[in-house]
Amino acid sequence: MTNTTTYNIASIPGDGIGVDVTEAAEAVLNKLAETVGTFKFNFTTFDWSSKKYLERGWYMPEDGMQQLSKYDAIFFGAVGSPDVPDHISLWGLILPIRKYNNQYVNVRPTRILPGTVAPLAQCRERPQDIDWMIIRENSEGEYAGQGGTTHENSPDTIATEVAIFTRVGIERIMRFAFETAKSRPRKKLTMVTKSNAQRHGMVLWDKVFHEVAKEYEGVVEWDKMLVDAMTVRMVNKPESMDTIVATNLHADILSDLAAALAGSIGIAPSANLDPTRKYPSMFEPIHGSAPDIAGQGIANPVGAFWSAAEMVRWVGQGKLDKVADDFMQAIENVTSNPKTRTKDMGGSANTKETTEAVIKQIDVVFGKK
Ligand code: NAI
Ligand code: MG
């Protein structure tokens, strides 16, 4: 009899297709756990949706963070509804979770999965040209929430949005980025900045980067890009990059571009990490609630599955890396078949059919051993 480790997961489906893809991810994770046999997942669902917000006036209860702190990880679908202004839903739920739980790193792996029609001609021939790990600063920068509005509702309204950069915040993200680059085969880091025009915060960003870089001399090769030029390089020379580190806003934008270059926003995953492991980390597909297709059962669950694979890697602390890799193989077997991938990837399957196909492929991939 082997020992079984139980991972307690707080599941927050949220709104729209967030609900469908979270349900799909739970089914697939349960299948994975059952197949491997050394661990299992115990999911607790929190209905902190926009629908509930409209009924009761809040997204999370007052002790919401205390409730979450008991879990090994958080799985998140998506939040956002046409009936609630986006800054209310974002600041009501997802941003406070990231902040309170010290999730100062947002990791966005980007690859072209089989079955994807990549928009770049060069990537249609060589999908391996896009293999990036985007490291987004997730706690400060342009999304620090500092600022204010005066003379509201008058022609003289003034609003400020203050970007915050701290030495502590920059140093820890740079160190995480260098460690990530070091752990990957190419050992290559591209640092994104805008220190030509933004002459305070971004200058500190560069300065601390160069300090940390000294510790990795001869170990990690690095270069530096202005964010505007970076968009051009991502399109024209995608193969020239590996690990990428950028501020909260810059990486938010660049990672959407990355998702588009990889073929579909529906497959892109993300991990919000507290590298100290004091608080739970959160895993979520990068797409939103997609009100245009919500309720139709056609959402691509692959972004949620890939996020789930990253969650397996994280909770396993090195022990489940192979399981996560094999799980990704099962997902890729499904995306390579037009009959089992969803419409946004040019396939004919709905969410349920893709989910069932992944469940079958888990048997195939793990059964081989
Ligand atoms: P979105 O990602 O929800 O949708 C953009 C487009 O991509 C839509 O046409 C949608 O149908 C399609 N799409 C997205 N995910 C898909 C999937 N899994 N399968 C197939 N097609 C998919 O972004 P949008 O429309 O800008 O935002 C909608 C709502 O979601 C807003 O309220 C927004 O604030 C919220 N949002 C929430 C996020 C989160 O919870 N982390 C992230 C992004 C947006
Ligand atoms: Mg975004």
Automatic annotation (TrEMBL):
It is an enzyme of class 1 (oxidoreductase). The keyword Oxidoreductase applies. The keyword Membrane does not apply. GO terms for molecular function: D-malate dehydrogenase (decarboxylating) (NAD+) activity; magnesium ion binding; NAD binding. Keywords: Magnesium, Manganese, Metal-binding, NAD, Oxidoreductase. Its cofactor is Mn(2+); Mg(2+). PANTHER family: D-MALATE DEHYDROGENASE [DECARBOXYLATING] (PTHR43275). Belongs to the isocitrate and isopropylmalate dehydrogenases family. This is D-malate dehydrogenase (decarboxylating). It comes from Zasmidium cellare ATCC 36951.
